[in-house]
């Protein structure tokens, strides 16, 4: 029988992982075996190099710091507070301790005997994953740990909330359900034969395959209307003449969310599945956006379509608000960040395109001579990187083609009016103004290509702090709407300039080290010391910017074009530098974790999510966050070495 | 002539476990033993009242402390079936739920087993020991022979030195509640014997650390 004392221990332990994963019986068994130990401030619990004890620790009250020796000095690596588990080397392999543990204040600590836990470790999948993924403090996360960490997250996430909000968008839908059997005809058939089949099977589309059953094209009702009837062609026309091709194909075991993202991105109405995913492989199925829409009432595709068709600013605002609900749903269901960011970026881009079309329609008549003026709307900063999940500050610009002197004034006015209207629409949709006015409606950032080249040249050639600050925002530009070639020309210019003045990258790398990595949740250390956000943790400044800045520098040094996502940049870096691949992947994963946590915080507090109250996070989230800090330091070391920053002037 | 025997008043033969306890207690703890190596049994009882002649033990809680560690595995919680349900006590302690009761003999046996070679600790321990002796008397327990340490006295001594004037002490400042507050111990499960024993145990480990700093380093120092 568990008595009051054991119950007291159970009540405490069950709040914290990994104990929270134990059945009541197992937990009671563990609780009965623990010792409570009291340590005064400054006392050592164990020291580096000591053989592992026969128990590991959980902080009951107080705080324990884990320290290491650096150049003869004892430096804090991490601070453990209530519910934190540490000293687990005793459990895992019984190696000597690699850190010191010392009471940072008067602390009451639970010592959990390894013996009772070993059995649990071997039998309870969640508990072993917990330890394997380095959730416990001071475990010095193995590099490959983060992907494990994510696995744990999904595992734990699934248990917590079986979702009950009617969306049911992707829950459980990891495999694709495509139409079966798929309706097809052969390249030798006539339209009449194809139509006969379509009408018999009551479908709106048919796949055309060759003799090996490889998909060659597709004919839809729309094709019949536009390419046959409208052109007065006979029914005996061969199908190959009016079919759309090539068809976009995918592998049948592709993740549903990926399939979906693909369709949304490429505005595909149909996606064809083949054996190996290529179009030179036998057809096995087809999925249409219609199929998806029928099964999902409230989907991104519907939203994007509605945005595209909207003429009314209030309706745009309403639709954009709806997207927020979707974002929440995506986050809560632990969909991949890549997917979420992809959808949100697409929604924002669509909104901007819509706004530009509306602005253009309004002002074009006044500037008939500029009807064909080419311009490109650039997203900057996080939107430029395609990682803006919440409607935070806008950073954008317009680049337009250079015009003859006599048109200069007019072009400037025209572009400015468009920029102004677009921004007004975006503000109406609840986006926030950039405090530094890095927006297209600021005349400084609404300029012809020639002027933009000058701007970039100046930033690159004179890398003073101001230039570097600009560079961190402007270098992530991405063409959202208009003439892509203008953006490409600018990219090329940037690389040419960098190649001439290589020293820029060293400055840029040094700039990326301005924000040192946080070490752990140091109660009073990492959080902001004063002001409005006192006692909060600035996730953007302390965690995200160091990773985004480093990725930018590294990707520039590899002369990679067209990859803006921080996590995709790390993916690319992993590919380019195989010997650092594991670290880069971890950094990318870490970045995704920060994005997710920030977005969730923002949604729950109706803010930018930038300032996080450490107490408001669950234990698991805090540990996840802590683990995600580790790659930052490693990445910064790479910058230091590669750009020789220790020898580089201040 | 043994009159008591003749009239059937003779005590029953002393049970074996009491003899074992009494023998064990012949061996004294060495005075030079460091405080950090001492072994304690922290106890608390809840009773029907404060009169050691008339009131009864309702429940008993205990936990061991050794090498400065509170051993949860050694936690004990026992309930005795009250002879007469005393309504007042029930109000204070909330002992209304049916408990898995133990006999007096089971209680004393467990207590004496645990108490061997230990220093007994409690808050206002004298009362609890008197009540335990009362429970044990009919079974043949004559006297609890352990060295004792009262957390009330220890806390006072740490504040005022060894030779404080008892008249100058406001004893309510040294109640278990007040001390828990002062030593940052969250007062859970108050007014259950086991809960209070755990609180006293936490208080003990904190007081011992503080005592060590004041030069109380050995068993002799602690008892002196």
From TrEMBL, chain A:
This is CBS domain-containing protein. CDD domains: CAP_ED, NT_GlnE_GlnD_like. It comes from Cyclobacterium plantarum. PROSITE patterns: CBS, CNMP_BINDING_3. It comes from the Bacteria. The keyword Coiled coil does not apply. Residues 18-121 form the Cyclic nucleotide-binding domain. Keywords: CBS domain.
Automatic annotation (TrEMBL), chain B:
InterPro entries: Ribonucl_H, RNaseH-like_sf, RNaseH_sf. GO terms for molecular function: exonuclease activity. CDD domains: DEDDh (cd06127). Residues 39-213 form the Exonuclease domain. Gene3D superfamilies: Ribonuclease H-like superfamily/Ribonuclease H. Keywords: Exonuclease, Hydrolase, Nuclease. PANTHER family: DNA POLYMERASE III SUBUNIT EPSILON, PROTEIN NEN2. This is 3'-5' exonuclease. It comes from Cyclobacterium plantarum. The lineage of its organism: Bacteria, Pseudomonadati, Bacteroidota, Cytophagia, Cytophagales.
């Amino acid at each position: 029988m568990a008595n009051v004392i054991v119950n007291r221990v159970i009540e405490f332990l069950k709040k914290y992982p990994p104990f929270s994963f134990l059945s009541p019986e197992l937990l009671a068994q563990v609780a009965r075996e623990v010792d409570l130990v009291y340590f005064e401030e400054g006392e050592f619990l164990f020291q580096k190099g000591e053989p592992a004890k026969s128990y590991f620790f959980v902080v009951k009250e107080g705080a324990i710091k884990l320290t290491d020796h650096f150049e003869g000095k004892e430096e804090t690596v991490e601070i453990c507070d209530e519910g934190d588990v540490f000293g687990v080397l005793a459990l895992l392999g019984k190696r000597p301790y690699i850190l010191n543990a010392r009471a940072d204040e008067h602390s009451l600590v639970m010592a959990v005997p390894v013996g009772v836990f070993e059995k649990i470790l071997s039998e309870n999948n969640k508990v072993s994953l917990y330890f394997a993924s380095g959730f416990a403090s001071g475990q010095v996360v193995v590099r490959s740990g983060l992907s494990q960490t994510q696995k744990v997250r999904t595992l734990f996430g699934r248990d917590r909330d079986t979702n009950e909000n009617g969306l049911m968008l992707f829950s459980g839908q990891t495999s694709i359900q495509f139409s079966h059997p798929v309706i097809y005809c052969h390249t030798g058939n006539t339209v009449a034969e194809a139509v006969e089949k379509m009408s018999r099977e009551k479908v709106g589309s048919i796949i055309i395959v060759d003799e090996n059953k490889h998909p060659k094209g597709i004919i839809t009702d729309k094709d019949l209307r536009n390419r046959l009837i409208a052109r007065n062609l006979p029914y005996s026309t061969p199908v190959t003449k009016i079919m759309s091709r090539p068809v976009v194909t995918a592998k049948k075991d592709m993740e549903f969310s990926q399939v979906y993202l693909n369709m949304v991105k490429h505005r595909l109405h149909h996606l064809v599945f083949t054996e190996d995913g290529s179009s030179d492989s036998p057809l096995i199925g087809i999925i249409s956006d219609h199929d998806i829409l029928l099964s999902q009432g409230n989907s991104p595709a519907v939203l994007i379509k509605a945005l595209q068709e909207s003429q009314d600013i209030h309706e745009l605002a309403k639709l954009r608000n709806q997207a927020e609900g979707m974002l929440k749903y995506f986050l809560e269901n632990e969909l991949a960040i890549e997917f979420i960011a992809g959808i949100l970026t697409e929604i924002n881009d669509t909104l901007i395109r819509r706004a530009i079309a509306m602005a253009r329609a309004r002002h074009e008549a006044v500037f008939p001579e500029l009807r064909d003026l080419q311009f490109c709307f650039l997203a900057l900063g996080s939107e430029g990187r395609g990682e803006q999940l919440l409607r935070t500050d806008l950073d954008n610009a317009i680049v337009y083609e250079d015009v003859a002197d006599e048109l200069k004034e007019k072009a400037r006015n025209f572009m400015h009016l468009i920029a102004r209207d677009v921004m007004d629409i975006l503000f109406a949709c609840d986006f926030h103004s950039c405090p530094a006015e890095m927006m297209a409606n600021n005349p400084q950032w609404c300029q012809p290509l020639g002027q933009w080249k000058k701007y970039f040249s100046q930033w690159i050639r004179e890398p003073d702090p101001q230039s570097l600050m600009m560079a961190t925002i402007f270098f992530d530009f991405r063409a959202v709407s208009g003439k892509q070639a203008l953006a490409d020309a600018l990219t090329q210019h940037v690389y040419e300039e960098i190649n001439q003045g290589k020293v820029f990258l060293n400055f840029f790398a040094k700039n990326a080290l301005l924000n040192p990595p946080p070490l752990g949740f140091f109660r009073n250390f990492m959080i902001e010391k004063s002001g409005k956000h006192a006692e909060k943790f600035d996730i953007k400044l302390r965690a995200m910017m160091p990773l985004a800045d480093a990725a930018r520098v590294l990707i520039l040094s590899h002369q990679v074009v067209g990859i803006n996502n921080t996590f995709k940049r790390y993916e690319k870096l992993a590919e380019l530098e195989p010997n650092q691949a594991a670290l880069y992947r971890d950094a990318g994963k870490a970045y995704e974790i920060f994005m997710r946590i920030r977005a969730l915080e923002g949604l729950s507090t109706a803010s930018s999510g930038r300032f996080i109250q450490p107490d408001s996070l669950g234990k698991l989230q805090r540990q996840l966050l802590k683990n995600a800090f580790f790659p930052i330091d490693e990445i910064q070391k790479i910058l230091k070495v590669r750009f020789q920053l220790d020898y580089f002037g201040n | 002539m043994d009159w008591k025997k003749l009239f059937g008043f003779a005590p029953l033969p002393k049970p074996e476990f009491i003899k074992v306890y009494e023998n064990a207690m012949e061996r004294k703890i060495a005075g030079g033993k460091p405080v950090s190596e001492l072994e304690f049994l922290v106890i608390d009882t809840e009773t029907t009242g404060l009169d050691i002649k008339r009131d009864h033990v309702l429940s008993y809680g205990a936990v061991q402390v050794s090498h400065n560690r509170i051993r949860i595995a050694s936690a004990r919680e026992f309930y005795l079936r009250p002879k007469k349900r005393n309504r007042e006590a029930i109000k204070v302690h909330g002992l209304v739920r049916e408990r898995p009761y133990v006999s007096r003999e089971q209680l004393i046996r467990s207590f004496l087993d645990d108490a061997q070679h230990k220093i007994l600790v409690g808050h206002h321990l004298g009362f609890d020991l008197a009540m335990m002796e009362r429970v044990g008397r009919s079974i043949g327990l004559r006297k609890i022979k352990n060295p004792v340490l009262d957390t009330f006295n220890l806390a006072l001594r740490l504040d005022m030195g060894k030779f404080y004037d008892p008249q100058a002490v406001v004893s309510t400042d040294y109640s278990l509640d007040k001390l828990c507050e002062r030593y940052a111990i969250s007062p859970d499960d108050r007014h259950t014997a086991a809960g209070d024993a755990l609180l006293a145990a936490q208080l003990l480990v904190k007081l011992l650390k503080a005592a060590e700093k004041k030069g109380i380093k050995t068993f002799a120092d602690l008892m002196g």
